[in-house]
Amino acid sequence: MKKRIMSILVALCMVIALLPATALAAPSTKTITCNNLTLEVSKVYAMDSWSKSSADGYTTTYCVVVPASATIKCLKESKAFHSYLLWPFNDIVFTDGPMYPTVDFACDYDDAIYVPFNQGSVITAAVNNEYSFSDSENYRNFNVRIFVVPDDKLVQFGGSKVAVKPNPVTGNVPASPSKTDFVVKSLEKNAKEISKNVTQAYTINNTNYLQLRAIAVLLNGSEAQFDVGWDGRYAVIEPGKPFTGVVTGSKMQTTKYIRPSSTNFKMNGEVFSFADARLINGDTNYIQLREFAQKLAGTASQFNVYWDDAAGKAVIQPGVAYTGTKYEAAVTPLEKVKKNGDILADGDYYLKISGKFLYPVKGGQYWLELSNERPDKPFNIKLVSNSEDRGPKYSIGYDGTYIMLPGSADGAQLQSTTSSTPHYWRINMYSDFGTIRDYGNQKLLVKASGKTRNGDTKIVGAASTGSAPDNGKIEFYKEI
């Protein structure tokens, strides 16, 4: 369970030292020792410590103010110390020196992350982050809270006056918080669009720019998920891995403070930069979603994105390379199989009833339904034996499973099984169609009947004698 030391520091402190903020008018390197933990922090503008006793022990806290690019080096650590808490914030106000900050955090405490940090590790501090370190011994807690603040906050600790903001690269065109609806839709049949709320996105000239971590959240859990982190030099993108970080928040407001980004990124060993990455309203990178999709094409996290004009949404299709238009799977022509003797040759087949495909719908296992869409894969049909009395005996497989009729029950829906023993079927070929019956109970004919919850037609095994009805006539097709 996480230690919630940070939320009770002010109430649980004991005085060791007090260094007034005014004593550090210029930045300097400080070595801070908290029991077995020793840190060397560069560009320190202010540091102090304040404490009180408490019934459950004592806590010593150092609060430190540094600018972006300050370094934090671990000179010494205890055996129990292996990580620091990274907690991004939107805004911070120091009312009476660094020990009394009012912090508007960008995420909840439980959403902050612990980052490995061992002896010799060095961090290059990024603005609007708190780096929190802790150690303990004999009921005494030791903490260092390092706040990385922008120039306008650094002024009160002896920093230079804030420089005039540069002219935005877009002239008079502002960046506005995006109102675009983003949806993620899998390519699987009947997949629903999943709407995603992207809080860190701007629009410039009708083009969306998203924070990289916000894109990671958008795609997390999909085929296109990726992780992103900082190695002290590059923003590192790791395709195929789940996102483990948090979105570093900034106040979303219309702004003309827009600058080109010079951040270098690293992915699969390649160092690169994006052509149209922007720093918007601060020092956070925002990237075109389309440019990012182009860069990830061919990786484990590739995805397509296109604008659905009718729905007014940006649609993301995980698992396929970027095209900028709606992805449609390539269609291989099919040829209808004609009767050539009484035996259907072993092979891969697509099956149709009344012009619609028998389609395996995934839901725990595959369930057979009728669909206008062709299945991703064909059915594999194999002849097992041929009996003069009971006719030819076949197995029917799909995607490494066997198709079965549960319990050979009248009216049951066909589904798949991962059993190593196949369910057996009798297939009879006629002039321009065939029939499939349960081999163990040949009164049960495979046909289309009944409705699913989605309104599609089930494929069932139901009692039928005499000539096959139209909904039991199956056509067999092979790819040309």
- Choose one word for the global shape: elongated
Q: Quickly count the helices.
A: 3
N→C terminal distance:
60 Å
Task: Round the Cα radius of gyration to an integer and report it.
Answer: 32 Å
Helix content: under 10%
Got a strand count?
40
Low-confidence stretches: 1-24, 52-57
Task: Specify the structural class.
Answer: mainly beta
Q: Mean pLDDT, rounded to whole units?
A: 83
Domain tally: 3
Main sheet characteristics: 11 strands, antiparallel
Strand content: over 45%
How would you concisely characterize the structure shown here?
This protein has 480 residues and is mainly beta. A hairpin with a 4-residue loop joins strand 23 and strand 24.
Describe this structure in words.
This protein is mainly β and 480 residues long. It has three domains: 152 residues, no CATH class; 143 residues, no CATH class; 146 residues, Trefoil (Acidic Fibroblast Growth Factor, subunit A). 4% of the residues lie in helices and 45% in strands. It contains three helices and 40 strands. The strands form seven sheets. Strands 27, 28, 29, 30, 31, 32, 33, 35, 36, 37 and 40 form an eleven-stranded antiparallel β-sheet that branches.
